[in-house]
Design brief:
elongated; five-stranded mixed beta sheet; single chain; 2 domains; about 50% helix; alpha+beta; Alpha-Beta Plaits
Length: about 190
């Protein structure tokens, strides 16, 4: 079993000779930062400072991440887009904590600050869920005529409240399923 001394953070200065040094390219810090951001629930993607969004998959590149790197410390500015219906302050604080821990644990650098700039809110998940529900309703109403499928699509388009649209869509899909079953029973 490892002793307590073995699992404590390593002080790099003790192990590096006096005339030697370890430096990190900004890209290394950016990659670590992007990976740490990807671990946080509620981040839809990264953004540039003018608001252009990049997908979450690209968080490891330097877009949306500004690094100020010193010999023993680093400061980071992050430009993020948060998923709709997530507590923005909690998501931002989780990002700060996760980024700070990842950089300090992997590099030994002191993280002076992690500033999170929320550049927008993404409705992508809600829109994807509604579109998926419309496809489901359309498949359930096959053979019911175009009016039934069109009604399902109209329900999605007309409702601005996602929860209400989802309920309407499910109700309509169930009605269509029942009608289809009754038609089969009649045959």
């Amino acid at each position: 079993m490892a002793s307590k001394k073995d699992i404590l953070p390593v002080n790099i200065e003790e192990e590096v000779e006096q005339n030697s040094s370890i430096t990190y390219a900004p890209e290394v810090i950016s990659i670590i930062t992007g990976a740490a951001i990807n671990e946080v629930e509620g981040i839809a993607g990264m953004s540039n400072s003018s608001g252009g969004m990049f997908s979450r998959k690209n968080a490891g590149n330097s877009k949306g991440i500004k690094i100020e790197l010193g010999p023993e410390e680093v400061s980071i500015d992050l430009y993020v887009v948060v998923e709709y219906d997530r507590p923005i302050q909690k998501v931002a604080m989780d990002v700060q904590e996760n980024v700070r821990k990842a950089i300090e644990n992997m590099t030994g650098l002191h993280v002076v600050r992690v500033d999170v700039h929320v550049q927008g809110v993404s409705f992508e998940k809600e829109n994807t869920a509604l579109a998926s529900g419309a496809k489901k309703a359309e498949s359930l109403t096959e053979g019911q005529g175009d009016e039934s499928a069109q009604k399902a699509v109209e329900l999605v388009d007309d409702d601005t409240d996602e929860e209400e649209a989802s309920e309407d869509l499910n109700d309509h899909a169930e009605d269509a399923q029942d009608a289809k079953q009754e038609e089969q029973d009649a045959e």
